Amino acid sequence: TRNPARSTDVTVLGLGAMGSALATALLDAGRSVTVWNRTPGRAAQSVARGARAAGSVREAVTASPVVVTCLLRYPSIQETLAPVAGELRGRTLVNLTTTTPNESRDLAVWAAGHGADHLDGAIMAVPDMIRSREGQIFYSGSRAAYDILLPTLEIWATSEFHGEDAGRAALLDLAMLSGMYQMFTGFFHGAAMVATMGMSASEFAARQAPFLSAMTHGLAGYAKVVDGGDHTGPGLQSLDFSDLSHLVRASEEQGVDPAPIAAVQALISRQIAAGHGAEGFTRIYESLRLVGS
Ligand code: FVH
Q1: Atom 31 of ligand 1 has which residue's CA nearest to it?
Q2: Helical (H) or strand (E) element with 13
Q3: Predicted local distance difference test score (pLDDT) of residue 241
Q4: Which of 69, 125, 197, 286 has a Cα at 20 to 30 A from 227?
């Protein structure tokens, strides 16, 4: 017998690099897929693999009980769906467009207002990782929708549900990306510094990658201190010791913009000025939490 959860028809709105990968994965898994893209001509690849190309958003939305959006940013979701909002009733909207937590919450409220169930997904993968176990997608929003759709969601990547607050997946996604972008920016800053002595970025990367990789082993220990809230414990490198003024100065001496490392130093300085110089480097976490509180 046909298991409905394993045979759900799916519509994918947005056939950019990621939307195409999602549609292809569903097709390869034997699903019936309808696709739509704002700019015509991008559906060819999916159609060649068996997708049905809809001539309009309305046709696409009404073709399936599950509608996936994989568009550029939040405004493009509204631009695409608002004119056909009345067609969403009784369907499940799975948004895989990157949004802020509040945008995800707004979308959940908007979808509910039009009688649709809503699940928000945050893709922690590049298109090539779709259909691999290394790819991860975080979800939040409707638990019922998540449970019903899990066999479909698992076609794309390892799925994790993070709660009924629709903004949680997006928050986790953007927090992960914050760490990643700052790591890359740190690398670019270091590469710019060594470039002044003629070292190529590739040569620097060969040294930086294993070093950074080894440093990530420190994260769990730092996390314990942050979670415990006590930055005075033994074995922690003090803020006075961690003062990075010399690093900022070295960057300036080489004629390299110290902005990335100066931002870290600003957090350190704020805690030292507040009298916490003897506490551990982890104390800068408190500098970050002060903003907006
Ligand atoms: N690609 C990746 O590695 C990342 C991994 C993590 C998650 N992201 C997010 O996925 C969303 C889509 O990303 P993408 O890689 O598919 O992006 P593009 O290839 O640039 O395609 C963008 C699609 O969005 C359509 N689009 C843009 N603006 C509008 C609009 N106003 N109305 C309707 N559709 C719109 C665009 O259509 P077109 O330009 O071909 O007409 C593409 O289909 C994104 O949120 C990432 O953050 C991917």
Answers
A1: 76
A2: strand 10-13
A3: 86
A4: 125
In short, whether 72's Cβ falls inside 6 Å of ligand 1 is: yes
40 and 153 both lie in a single domain? yes
Which residues have a Cβ under 8 Å from the Cβ of 279 and sit 6 or more positions away? 231, 232, 236, 238, 239, 271
Distance CA 286, CA 271 (A): 8
Containing structural domain, residue 204: 196-290
Task: State ipTM.
Answer: 0.98
Please tell me whether residues 80 and 165 are part of one structural domain.
yes
- Which amino acid residue places its CA nearest to atom 46 of ligand 1? 98
Residues 66, 162, single domain; the answer is yes
In a domain, 141, yes or no: yes
Cβ of 12 less than 6 Å from ligand 1? no
pLDDT, mean of residues 62-74: 97
Q: Which tens digit of pLDDT belongs to each residue from 142-164?
A: 999 999 999 999 999 999 999 99
- Identify which of 11, 18, 20, 67 to mutate to test ligand 1's pocket (most ligand atoms within 8 A of the CB): 18
In a domain, 190, yes or no: no
137 bridge partner residues: 123, 159
The pTM (predicted TM-score) of the whole model is: 0.92
